[in-house]
Amino acid sequence: MKRRNFIKNSALGIAVASTGLSSAFANTQKPMKETIAHYVLFWLRPDLSAQEVASFTGFFEELNKIPSKLSLSYGPAAKTNPRDVVDNTFSYNLLVEFKDLTDLGIYEVHPIHLNAIEKYKHLWTKVVVHDSVLQKA
User: Fold this and answer.
1) What region holds the Stress-response A/B barrel domain (predicted)?
2) Which end of the chain has fewer CB atoms < 10 Å from its terminal CB, N or C?
């Protein structure tokens, strides 16, 4: 009798384990999740001192305090190999990711964002914004 219960329980255990395994594989086929990418290019004034250019990173650090974002990254243009499709004439870029358009909207009118623009806008000559819907696997 003990052997019969062992076999029965083992079969049940294998069935449960295989179900868990198959559901784990099923989870790898999740639908893509969308987020919003807010990508901004800045061209700083050519007459700025090295110290003024370095101080511009304070703009990004202030924006990083806005809570509606998922992530924030920034940096200068990379000195990549010149090609017809590459435009690295900008001084800095900013990439902010949001859960949805509502959170981007909150960011756009947030007092920290508006105050940072007022504080640093004298340093740039041009700004270009690209907002995109990103698909994540």
Assistant:
1) 36-132
2) N
Claim: this prediction has a pTM higher than 0.90: no
For 38-74, the pLDDT digits (tens) are 999 999 999 999 999 999 999 999 999 999 999 999 9
Tell me which CATH code domain 33-136 carries: 3.30.70.100
Cα 30 to the chain's mean position, in Å? 20
Residue-wise pLDDT tens digits, 65-124: 999 999 999 999 999 998 999 999 999 999 999 999 999 999 999 999 999 999 999 999
Buried b / exposed e over 32-68, threshold 16 CB at 10 Å, is eeebbbbebbbebeeebeeeeeeebeebbebbeebeb
Q: So where are the chain's domains? A: 1-30, 33-136
Strands 92-98 and 33-44, sheet pairing: antiparallel
